[in-house]
Design goal:
Layout lengths: L7 H7 L23 E2 L8 E6 L3 E10 L2 E4 L12 E5 L12 E10 L13 E5 L24 E6 L15 E6 L3 H8 L9 E4 L14 E4 L5 E7 L10 E5 L4 H25 L2 H24 L1
Antiparallel strand pairs: 1-9, 2-3, 2-5, 3-4, 4-7, 5-6, 6-7, 8-9, 8-11, 10-13, 11-12, 12-13
Helix pairs in contact: 3-4
Length: 305
């Protein structure tokens, strides 16, 4: 996929990879990876989950918001219907099943209503799980923060994405990389015409160290207090000094996150009460099914806007 305004011929000639799409290795297109990283310790990022297609495996990362909700990038939720997805919490080595792992099916997608696929503005969404995640030392919710400033302005990205730009070879092991916070002016220069805005996005990365395909949707972490401040969104190629990584700034969307969860949960609760009052469990199942299908339909419509 090319940025709006760039011809397909130009993109083909320059081999530009838009890193806010899915990872090639196990999804249907290029995404975000860890360039210049090192292995993470088991349980170092207990809030990080692997978002997977049941048919093809890992495509994106996500952050556990609470036991029933995952925070991720909007662009991670258009490959299939929710029933085709699963979440793996406690993942470390992709080729091994760890005792700490939990595999949970997806109930529904909630994409920001103003998400723009071309500019990647408002690249944020929530995944509702069919059953709660059980928390323990290796699986915990992330602490959402709003401070991107540390003593040395260092941030951390982690994931199972590509380890070399343009090469469909993802990491088996969870990797992490420390990336410097960059001035908004750097991303304005690199992506300004595509709509980069510092109030809603974070600019980070340096030549040779970056997130890349397959890391999309995972959290950007404050290296000081270990709060999750951003969501891996996009970039041009990976690990290039002139094209830093762009991350969705979570704090800007705090009200949207809380309102979306509250509305979804209250709607489900209300319908359960109505179903019980009417004495029709079958109707309840039909209503929930219709609600889920409507959410998927809306997500598909927003993708086309």
């Amino acid at each position: 996929m090319c940025f709006k305004g760039l011809s397909s011929i130009f993109c083909a000639l320059t081999f530009l990879t838009i890193c806010h799409s899915f990872k090639v290795h196990r999804a249907a297109g290029p995404g975000i990876l860890i360039i210049g990283g090192s292995p993470a310790a088991r349980g170092e990022f207990p809030w990080l989950v692997s978002i997977q297609l049941k048919s093809r495996g890992h495509i994106c990362g996500g952050t556990i918001f609470n036991s029933e909700w995952i925070l991720t990038a909007a662009h991670c939720m258009f490959e299939d219907l929710p029933r085709g997805y699963q979440i793996v919490a406690g993942e470390h080595l992709r080729n091994e099943t760890d005792p700490s792992e939990q595999i949970v099916d997806v109930e529904g997608f909630f994409v920001h209503e103003s998400y723009d696929e071309d500019s990647a503005q408002n690249d944020i969404g929530l995944i509702r799980l069919k059953s709660p995640i059980n928390f323990h030392d290796f699986v915990k919710p992330g602490v959402i923060g709003d401070n991107t400033t540390t003593e040395e302005n260092q941030l951390i990205a982690a994931g199972w994405g590509y380890t070399q730009s343009g090469t469909p070879s993802s990491s088996i092991e969870l990797l992490k990389v420390t990336v410097p916070l960059r001035p908004n002016a750097d991303c304005d220069l690199a992506y300004g015409e595509f709509g980069y805005t510092g109030v809603k996005q974070i600019c980070a990365g340096i030549g040779g160290k970056d997130s890349c395909s397959g890391d999309s949707g995972g959290g950007l972490i404050n290296a000081g207090d270990k709060t999750v401040v951003g969501i891996v969104s996009y970039g041009i190629e990976c690990g290039l000094q002139v094209f830093p990584g762009v991350y969705t700034r979570i704090s800007y969307y705090h009200d949207w996150i809380m309102a979306t969860i509250s509305k979804a949960e209250s709607t489900t609760t209300t319908r359960r009460v109505e179903s019980t009052t009417n004495g029709s469990s079958d109707n309840m199942g039909n209503i929930i099914g219709l609600y889920t299908k409507l959410a998927v339909l809306l997500a598909s419509v927003f993708q086309l806007l």
